[in-house]
UniProtKB/TrEMBL annotation:
The keyword Ion transport does not apply. This is Glycine betaine/L-proline ABC transporter ATP-binding protein. Keywords: ATP-binding, Nucleotide-binding, Transport. Belongs to the ABC transporter superfamily. Residues 4-263 form the ABC transporter domain. It holds the Pfam family ABC_tran. It comes from the Bacteria. Gene3D superfamilies: P-loop containing nucleotide triphosphate hydrolases.
Length: 399
């Protein structure tokens, strides 16, 4: 069941916003509204976030991603649409009820740290608990635990200006964790950091997520960050969500030229996995190895494979075994070790080609969920396509 759902959210600034929503639903262009003094910041945004998932919203400056985030916890009231958290309609709550939800169930980590300079690191980390009315001893204990989680044990008595930018952001993250909220909203939380510190914070977040299993909505303009962190990614353009999918979905099957332009400089070999490009095991059956042995069973495939990997293995790790052998790499289930797919050499090379964008570049369809369409694995390579045709028993597995 989804932990959070956004249903047809609109946010319009300016005169007669309800009238503007009706015009947008009727097909009026965003630029036309702007010419009349009305700004449509978010247009018909819908998505669902599962419990324990990192859902990344990515887009350029002005795409509406931060406005969307602020509607999720009620900092901005939607012009139209609903936000459901654990089936509770947040948009229908009274201000006091909404503040209660924000105090206990939803925490936010800001881009620019938002630390109080006159409070110690421990006091900053405990601030959310103070707002909840937690007794001092208890909030200091929980804040100290949260600081330990983010690697700041021993810095409790320091002042914010004594910390580096990365350490200050860790305090902000600790403050969110101390409240024990199930949902974390992170608005460009790492974008103000230097590249190396930013990557360290990404590592920290991923490590924490393995242990804590929070539900996280993360806002960024950086595609590499989105693909590294996100279980699913929503790409925004001009207030609309134009595509939703996994990193592999967006990289391999971009919805349009706009999404494809984001992905052209991404190192596909480090994002795509064996599970995303693997073929059915049957493709290796009946093929012949370089030494003349025919692979007749799945056991033969496993025995002859130059490497055995799991579905989550990045394809960059497949280059060496594929280059040394004409036999396909075997992909096995992580739990029982059974053969679930193979990666022939031809398939590995094909997936490094340019992605095929979708036919529509207007970005006005309200968002495309790549998970709802058949997955095209690469330019010209799909689940239904196989290795080059040749007589049975003569194909080199991996040709």
């Amino acid at each position: 069941m989804s932990r959070l759902q956004a249903e047809h959210l609109f946010k319009v600034f300016g005169r007669r916003p309800d009238e503007a929503v009706a015009k947008l639903e009727g097909g009026t262009d965003r630029d036309e509204l702007r010419a009349n003094g009305t700004t449509a910041a978010v247009i018909d945004a819908s998505f669902a976030v599962e419990a324990g998932q990192i859902f990344v919203v990515m887009g350029l400056s002005g795409s509406g991603k931060s406005t969307l985030l602020r509607m999720l916890n009620g900092l901005l009231e939607p012009t139209a649409g609903r936000v459901l958290y654990d089936d509770q309609d947040l948009t229908a709550l009274a201000p006091r009820e909404l503040r209660e939800v924000r105090s206990h169930k939803i925490s936010m980590v800001f881009q620019h740290f938002a630390l109080f300079p006159h409070r110690s690191v421990l006091e900053n980390a405990a601030y959310g608990l103070e707002v909840q009315g937690i007794a001092r001893a208890e909030r200091e204990r929980r804040a100290a635990e949260a600081l330990g989680l983010v690697g700041l044990a021993g810095w409790e008595k320091s002042w914010p200006d004594e910390l580096s930018g990365g350490m200050q952001q860790r305090v902000g993250l600790a403050r969110a964790l101390a409240t024990d909220a199930d949902l974390l909203l992170m608005d460009e939380s790492f974008s103000a950091l230097d590249p190396l510190i930013r990557r360290d914070m990404q590592d920290q977040l991923l490590e924490l997520q393995k242990r804590l299993k929070k539900t996280i909505i993360f806002i960024t303009h950086d595609l590499n960050e989105a693909m590294r962190l996100g279980d699913r990614i929503a790409v925004m353009r001009d207030g609309r969500i134009v595509q939703i999918g996994t990193a592999e979905d967006i990289l391999v099957t971009p919805a349009n030229d706009y999404v494809a332009s984001f992905t052209q400089d991404v190192d596909r070999a480090r994002v795509l996995t064996a599970g995303a490009i693997m073929a059915d095991p049957e493709e290796a059956l009946g093929t012949t190895t370089p030494d003349g042995a025919v692979l007749r069973t799945e056991s033969d495939v496993l025995e002859a494979a130059p490497a055995i990997v799991t579905p989550d293995t990045p394809i960059v790790e497949l280059f060496t075994p594929c280059s040394r052998s004409g036999v396909a790499v075997a992909v096995t289930d992580e739990d029982d070790g059974s053969l679930i797919g193979v990666v022939p050499r031809a398939r590995l090379l094909a997936v490094l080609g340019e992605p095929e964008s979708g036919p529509d570049d207007t970005g006005t369809d309200g968002g495309t969920d790549a998970g709802d369409a058949p997955k095209i694995l690469a330019a010209g390579v799909s689940k239904s396509s196989g290795s080059p045709e040749a007589p049975e028993g003569k194909v080199i597995a991996g040709a």
